[in-house]
Amino acid sequence: MAAIDTEHPSWRVAAGTFVSYGILLAVVTVLLFLVPYAVFAFGL
């Protein structure tokens, strides 16, 4: 049985999708939770 070809462009697309989704989740979390917390806690 042949080994998985990790040089295929689909692996790079999949990795880029997961990384960009993680970045998007981090940005949304900051906007929805940390910004309102800072506004109410510190009166910004």
Automatic annotation (TrEMBL):
Highest taxon of the lineage: Archaea
Transmembrane annotation, as ranges: 18-42
Keyword entries, A-Z: Membrane, Transmembrane, Transmembrane helix
Record's protein name: Uncharacterized protein
Taxonomic lineage: Archaea, Methanobacteriati, Methanobacteriota, Stenosarchaea group, Halobacteria
